[in-house]
Write a structure and sequence with these properties.
The structure holds 2 protein chains of 2 kinds. By secondary structure, chain A is an all-alpha fold. Helix content of chain A is about 75%, strand content about 0%. Chain B has 12 helices and no strands. The chains are: A mainly alpha, B mainly alpha.
């Protein structure tokens, strides 16, 4: 891999990320208040975005063969179950990830 | 490195070491998560050929967990710069909302503001968004320390990860599921604490529908548009109705 390419790539991602984080503070600084519409939306959005991100992570599953969706679904269900049970983020993540790695490396090869 | 400088240059170095201790305690819930996820990121990045240095630089200068995972895949497959920018835009757009809800909180933070804004990740946001019961924990100096502790964990995890990838031979296939698992735990937490569940369902459902229509590589931006429309719909209806009522009253 070309170092210049990676460097510019990282720079672009960093710039976009910083811009997104800074934009609200630049736009609504001083006397200009964020309109009620925006604040209301921002209170609901985190929930919707998390739903979206879960789907985003599972975007490449396909139902053409068991090996391309079962490991994901089993592991995802395990994460949710362990998390509902213990409410311990690290435990849930480790359990789900280890389960998934075992499934794709040993069971559904 | 740059983050350490920020700490020393600003006069946050608190007169009582109590602030540092309280900030450290506040940041503890994020510590294990960031070290584990950072390690996962480091292992993944190293296994995809990003070397030892780039992953650590990403954790210092991008500092956005999910995007860094996504970026490893994109960079290692040689994605174009426009794709990188658009994906960063889509994956990190939620940071706009964090900023909006922290406007008041970070209003008078002066020289600490740039770093506070830069380091506003999902986890740091979730730690700081609520008022702390301890009044002494509601000031910019405290916020800065918590933010800084969090990034230290993340960078430390990345270093452990690339080192593990370099020196311990492990089959890392499937390690990227840690990201999926993280999002599921956050979604479950939100589901349990929130009274309204429809925004979460709306978000997931919009994503599934857009995934089916637009395919796996370009559904994030349509999904976000759909989410904004669906979430603001009740508000817009309410406004139209009240305007109509007013109109009827005037007649």
């Amino acid at each position: 891999m070309n170092n210049t390419y990676i460097f510019i790539g990282i720079l672009i991602i960093a710039a976009v990320t910083i811009a997104l984080r800074a934009l609200p503070f630049l736009v609504f600084s001083g006397k200009r208040k964020a309109p009620q519409f925006i604040t209301k939306l921002s209170s609901l959005l985190p929930y919707a975005v998390m739903g979206m991100l879960v789907v985003f992570c599972l975007k490449d599953i396909s139902f053409t063969s068991v090996g391309t969706f079962l490991p994901e679904l089993i592991s995802a269900a395990l994460v949710a179950a362990v998390h509902l049970w213990k409410h311990n983020t690290i435990l849930s993540i480790v359990a789900g990830t280890v389960c998934y790695m075992l499934l794709v490396q040993l069971v559904f090869v | 490195m740059s983050t350490m400088k920020t700490l020393h240059n600003t006069d946050t170095a608190p007169d009582n070491s109590g602030t540092v201790r309280r900030a450290f305690i506040k940041s503890l819930p994020v510590m294990a998560g960031y070290i584990v996820l950072g390690t996962g990121f480091g292992i993944l990045a190293y296994s995809k050929g990003l070397g030892l240095i780039w992953p650590v630089l990403m954790s210092i200068f991008i500092y956005a967990g999910s995007m860094q995972y996504v970026a490893v895949g994109l960079l290692s497959s040689g994605a174009g710069f426009i794709t990188l920018a658009l994906t960063a835009l889509a994956v990190n757009a939620r940071h706009l909302l964090y900023g909006i809800s922290m406007l008041d909180k970070y209003k008078d933070s002066g020289r600490k503001k740039p770093y506070l804004v830069f380091s506003l990740t999902d986890e740091t946001y979730s730690l700081l968004v609520r008022e702390d019961e301890n009044k002494r924990n509601n000031n910019p100096g405290f916020y800065l320390l918590v933010s800084l502790f969090d990034q230290c964990y993340w960078v430390l995890g990345s270093i452990i990860g690339v080192a593990a990838g370099r020196f311990i031979p492990i089959n890392t296939k499937g390690i990227d599921f840690s990201l999926t698992a993280l999002f599921i735990t956050v979604a479950v937490d939100q589901w349990c604490e929130g009274k309204k569940h429809w925004p979460a369902i709306a978000g997931a459902l919009s994503a599934v529908i857009c995934r089916l229509i637009f395919g796996p590589d370009s559904f994030l931006i349509p999904t976000m548009l759909a989410i904004v429309i669906v979430l603001s719909a009740p508000d817009i209806f309410e406004r139209i109705r009240s305007r109509r009522r007013k109109g009827a009253g005037n007649e």
